[in-house]
């Protein structure tokens, strides 16, 4: 690769069950060993599935404590990142955390996920990230830079909520003198590796399933001042016989933020067989 990536973004499911040994394996295999900044968020396997389903809620507590509170204290400051959370200490035996635990536009699990639970002497309140995201987008309204919104789950009503929020932001920013470049990335459905670009007030907004570790898929986004592209990859298992390359390029979308009309969207799937790639433009009215 001529230019190394600026960062690696991991959209959730860092572990299977949030167990401490799985967290340590992720830390050693990725956070410590990978030679570039990693912007990771939690998925449903890391904490949502484990609330009230793991002894003393220790699994969810472990992921939130180790990954965010302890690690982010130094890692986040070194990267000039601020996390959306608050720590309340009433005594050594009465500590509480609350927030969405989002940073930059790196959300956790889902844009509207919220829960409360206790583990030992610590109370946790996970808030929806909707207000956090609205505030961040408002700050970016007059800035001409790409906005990359990352989370783990974005299906059904959650997808509709995110679309409405983005469409409202685009409309409110329509007189800022530049066209917005915004995209959403997620990975909850591990078998999915595709892009759906929806036109909102004349602005193309890609919604991307980035691939997943269990499915050996990942994506690379290249951005420059005037050009942008998204490349889909498949990583081959070490035991695949007869394959010369460990990485297979599945396809590339040039001009990631292209042009569109207000009533269309496009679909692109990264498939193993390049001849099966289909790019369809279908008419659809987007209520935004």
UniProtKB/TrEMBL annotation:
Classify the source by domain of life: Eukaryota
SUPFAM superfamilies per record: Metallo-dependent phosphatases
- Descriptive protein name: Uncharacterized protein
What taxonomic lineage is listed for the species of origin?
A: Eukaryota, Metazoa, Ecdysozoa, Nematoda, Chromadorea
């Amino acid at each position: 690769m001529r230019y190394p990536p600026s960062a690696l973004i991991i959209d959730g499911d860092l572990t299977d069950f949030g167990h401490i040994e799985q967290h340590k394996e992720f830390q050693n295999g990725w956070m410590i060993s990978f030679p570039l900044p990693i912007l990771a968020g939690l998925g449903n396997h890391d904490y949502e599935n484990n609330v009230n389903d793991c002894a003393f809620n220790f699994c969810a507590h472990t992921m939130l404590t180790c990954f965010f509170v302890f690690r982010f204290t130094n890692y986040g400051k070194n990267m000039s990142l601020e996390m959306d959370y608050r720590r309340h200490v009433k005594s050594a035996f009465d500590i509480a955390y609350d927030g969405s635990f989002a940073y930059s536009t790196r959300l956790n699990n889902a844009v509207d996920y919220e829960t409360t639970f206790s583990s030992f002497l610590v109370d946790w309140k996970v808030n929806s990230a909707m207000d956090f995201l609205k505030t961040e987008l408002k700050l970016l309204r007059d800035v001409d830079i790409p906005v990359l919104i990352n989370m783990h789950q974005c299906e059904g009503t959650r997808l509709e909520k995110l679309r409405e929020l983005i469409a409202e932001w685009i409309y409110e920013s329509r007189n800022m003198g530049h066209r917005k470049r915004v995209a959403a990335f997620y990975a909850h459905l591990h078998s999915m590796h595709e892009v759906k670009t929806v036109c909102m007030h004349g602005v193309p907004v890609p919604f991307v399933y980035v691939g997943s570790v269990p499915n050996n898929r990942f994506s690379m986004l290249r951005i420059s001042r005037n050009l942008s592209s998204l490349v889909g990859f498949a990583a081959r298992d070490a035991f695949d016989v007869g394959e010369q390359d460990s990485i297979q390029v599945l396809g590339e979308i040039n001009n990631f933020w292209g042009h569109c009309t207000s009533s269309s969207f496009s679909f692109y799937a990264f498939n193993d067989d390049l001849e099966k790639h289909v790019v369809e433009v279908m008419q659809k009215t987007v209520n935004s």
